[in-house]
């Protein structure tokens, strides 16, 4: 069954074609971001490649930010998940190019993020400048009447906002 | 299940470079070392703000910016180290002051918040220009590190530009303090755009620092004037960081940064 996927989707989630590699991909895709546990590494677009090379499984991931310490945890979790499925010879490698962008976040991921109380990133548009946004919507009450408190938040990928209507502070997953 | 044969690459970004079979050619390694030192030294300085910034949000902001720079430093130093079979830690912790090649802007003490914002403005615009150009390098590893970094430093530019405005157009007192900060950091601008002695034989791979000046001059003086401030004039500092010549600020900073690794070589936690 052929499902047509958009170009962005194909770049964001380059799933393998063959049966076993796809099965391994699907296992690795259950690993979540330790800082934002509602998002899987597949939702984030962090999972980049799965290849079987002889008896070795090579999994490639890409860091969200250059200094992001969550990458270590994701790597360990991938090894654990695959070991449980009987894959003992696993190499997880991180790749830098193409550089990660929040445009790779899946629609499902965006919805889960909002549900979790984190405003989803605005889209950047391929290679272009940041789109002119109308504002960041409060994930609690839906108001657009929000204010940036701090461009930098609890992790590299988030900024801190406050809603002027419901007065609740919330995290915004920065477009990147 | 047999868990004993995991071939686990300890692959955060920097280590993945170490694990890959990529080896930096000697001149490229020499060049990458200087860039890595710039990022490392400023990352360490920014870390000094944690729990010391004027407000909690700035502790977090300066810490996050430092973390990004540390990420760049790790990648660059790891890549440089592939040429000499040295790790990022060997290079960061076991070289002495005269072996560091960072330009002198980065090692200056953090001063007050205004001094730090002035330096961040200069450094962030410089890094944005540098990494934008370096992302077109013919060396694929340098290009990948730079393409990743440029997106991060764009945020850093924004952060310092906003504070520059806020302080410059704030009260008479904040205006005076940020002007003083700019005046203190400005002598170190010139060195950033002098020819990098390690870039001379790397056409198409290294960035010509002198070429970056136009981009910097198109942005920074305008931001300063828009914030109601005066672009400082006056003699540039001597420079020479790339050749291992440093101001008196670097030695004590390295002593603090390196003491633990030197007291307990090979320690991990």
Description:
The complex is a heterodimer of chains A (176) and B (269). Chain A is an alpha/beta fold. Chain A is elongated and about 55 Å long. Chain A folds into two domains: 7-102, GMP Synthetase, Chain A, domain 3 (2-Layer Sandwich); 117-173, no CATH class. Helices cover 26% and strands 20% of the residues of chain A. Chain A has a four-stranded mixed β-sheet. The mean pLDDT of chain A is 89. With 269 residues, chain B is an all-alpha fold. Chain B has one domain: Ferritin, core subunit, four-helix bundle (Ferritin, Up-down Bundle). Chain B has eleven helices and no strands. In chain B, helix 1 (13-19) runs parallel beside helix 3, helix 6 packs across helix 8 (172-185) and helix 7 packs antiparallel against helix 8. Chain B is globular. The model of chain B is unreliable at 1-12 (pLDDT under 50). Classes of the chains: A alpha/beta (176), B mainly alpha (269).
- Give the overall pLDDT of chain B as a whole number: 92
Provide the CATH superfamily of chain B. Ferritin, core subunit, four-helix bundle
Summed up, the domain count of chain B is 1
Number of strands of chain B: 0
| Order of SSEs of chain B | HHHHHHHHHHH
- Tell me roughly what share of residues is in helical segments of chain B: 55-70%
Question: What keywords describe this structure?
Answer:
heterodimer; A: 176 residues; alpha/beta; GMP Synthetase, Chain A, domain 3; 2 domains; three-stranded mixed sheet; 7 strands; 20% strand; B: 269 residues; mainly alpha; 60% helix; 0% strand
Topology of helices and strands:
The complex is a heterodimer of chains A (176) and B (269).
Chain A lengths: L6 H6 L6 H10 L12 H4 L2 E7 L2 E6 L8 H15 L5 E5 L12 H10 L1 E2 L26 E5 L7 E6 L5 E5 L3
Parallel strand pairs in A: 2-3, 4-7
Antiparallel strand pairs in A: 1-2, 5-6, 6-7
Chain B lengths: L12 H7 L6 H22 L8 H26 L6 H6 L10 H4 L5 H22 L5 H29 L3 H14 L3 H4 L20 H14 L23 H14 L6
């Amino acid at each position: 069954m052929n499902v047509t996927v958009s170009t962005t989707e194909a770049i964001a989630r380059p799933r393998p074609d063959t049966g076993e590699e796809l099965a391994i991909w699907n296992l690795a895709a259950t690993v979540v971001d330790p800082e934002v546990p509602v998002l899987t590494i597949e939702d984030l677009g962090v999972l980049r490649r799965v290849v079987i090379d002889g008896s070795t499984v090579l999994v490639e991931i890409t860091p969200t930010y250059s200094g992001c310490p969550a990458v270590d945890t994701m790597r360990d979790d991938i090894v654990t998940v695959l070991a449980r499925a009987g894959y003992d010879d696993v190499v997880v490698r991180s790749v830098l190019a193409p550089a990660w962008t929040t445009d790779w976040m899946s629609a499902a991921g965006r919805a889960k993020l909002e549900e979790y109380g984190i405003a989803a990133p605005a889209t950047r548009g391929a290679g272009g400048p940041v789109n002119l946004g109308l504002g960041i919507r409060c994930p609690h009450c839906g108001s657009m009447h929000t204010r940036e408190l701090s461009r930098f938040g609890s992790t590299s990928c988030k900024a801190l906002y406050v809603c002027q209507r419901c007065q609740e502070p919330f995290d915004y997953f920065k477009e990147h | 299940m047999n868990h004993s044969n995991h071939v686990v690459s300890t692959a955060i970004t920097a280590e993945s470079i170490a694990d890959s079979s990529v080896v930096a050619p000697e001149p490229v390694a020499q060049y990458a070392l200087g860039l890595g030192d710039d990022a490392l030294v400023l990352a360490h300085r920014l870390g000094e703000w944690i729990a010391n910034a004027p407000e909690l949000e700035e502790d977090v902001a300066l810490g996050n910016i430092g973390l990004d720079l540390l990420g760049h430093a790790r990648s660059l130093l790891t890549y440089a180290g592939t040429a000499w079979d040295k790790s990022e830690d060997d290079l960061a912790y076991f070289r002495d002051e005269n072996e560091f090649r960072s330009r002198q802007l980065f090692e200056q003490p953090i001063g007050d918040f205004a001094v730090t914002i002035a330096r961040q403005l200069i450094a962030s615009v410089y890094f944005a220009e540098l990494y934008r150009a370096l992302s077109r390098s013919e060396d694929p590893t340098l290009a990948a590190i730079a393409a990743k970094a440029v997106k991060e430093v764009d945020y850093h530019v924004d952060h310092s530009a906003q504070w520059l405005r806020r302080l410059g157009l704030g009260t008479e007192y904040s205006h005076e303090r940020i002007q003083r900060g700019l005046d203190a950091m400005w002598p170190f601008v010139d060195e950033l755009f002098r020819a990098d002695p390690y870039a001379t034989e790397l056409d198409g791979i290294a960035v010509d620092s002198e070429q970056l000046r136009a981009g910097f001059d198109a942005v920074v003086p305008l931001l300063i004037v828009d914030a109601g401030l005066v672009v400082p004039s006056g003699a540039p500092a001597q420079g020479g960081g790339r050749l291992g010549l440093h101001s008196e600020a670097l030695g004590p900073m390295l002593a603090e940064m390196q003491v633990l690794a030197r007291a307990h070589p090979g320690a991990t936690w």
